[in-house]
Amino acid sequence: MEAYHMRLDLCINHMMMRPSIISRREATAAFRGVQTLPVDAVSCAIRRDDLRQAVELVERGRGQQWSLACRLRIPLEDLEPINPSLAHRLSELSKRLSDHMGSVASMERAAADKAVVQYRRLTEQWEAVVSEIRNLQGFSRFLLPPLYEDLQAAARHGPVIIFIASKYLCSAIVVPTSGEPHHVPLPSITLTDLKNLRDHFARAIRQASIMGLKEPRNDLIILLRKVWDKIMLPIVNFLRHDLKLKLSSRIWLCPTAAFTFIPLHGAHPFRTKADRSKEPCLEDLFICSYTPTLSALIRSRQAMKTRVTPSFVAIGQGQPDARKSRVLLAADSELELVQGLVPATVTCTVVSGHAATRAGALEALQQNTWVHLACHGKWNHTQPYYSHFVTKDEPLTLLDIMEKDIPHAEFAFLSTCHTAVGHEETPDEVIHLAAGLQFSGFKSIIGTLWEIDDTVAKHVVEAFYKNIFKNLDGGVMDCTKAAWALNRATHAVKTKVPLEQRLSFIHIGV
Question: In 3-state terms, what secondary structure has residue 448?
Answer without folding.
Answer: strand
